[in-house]
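Long-time lurker. I teach an intro course on protein structure, and each term I like to show students one example going from raw sequence to a predicted 3D structure in token notation. This year I'd like something fresh instead of my usual example. Would anyone be willing to generate the tokens for the chain below so I can use it in lecture? Attribution to the forum is fine with me.
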Amino acid sequence: MNEHNGKPQKKTGRRPKADPAKIRYTISFNEVEHSRFLELFDESGMKIKAHFITSCIFEKTIKTVKVDKGTTDFYMRLTSFHSQFRAVGVNYNQIVKILYHNFSEKKAAALLYKLEKNTVEMVDVFKKVMQLTEEFDQKHLKNSE
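-- Reply from a regular --
Happy to contribute to a lecture. Here you go:
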């Protein structure tokens, strides 16, 4: 135990590794090789370049992930549209309750008729969205597998 001024010294900090990596190698790339290396690194989905290089050297399997920005954007917009569609359904139920609670039966029926016409239009739009989603799936997602 190390003592300094009569007090025991506390052990703080990170615990040392059992087998630390102490040996380093350096490598030089030209511009073309560097861009190819970065491309492969990005495709691997790994976060640390040293781990990627080690995997390449010792022939470990390297996971390649390709992200299509258009597909991701389409998916995000479709998810947003779906949540908006669900919100409309919740609002629809609230409107029907309010109409029957605050208006006469005749007035409520007239307003519900208008609401029903708009709902039919919205259902047609949603069917079109479903059709476009299926077309997108057939053209872009099924072919990439």
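Some talking points for your students: Residues 69-141 form one domain. The mean pLDDT is 80.
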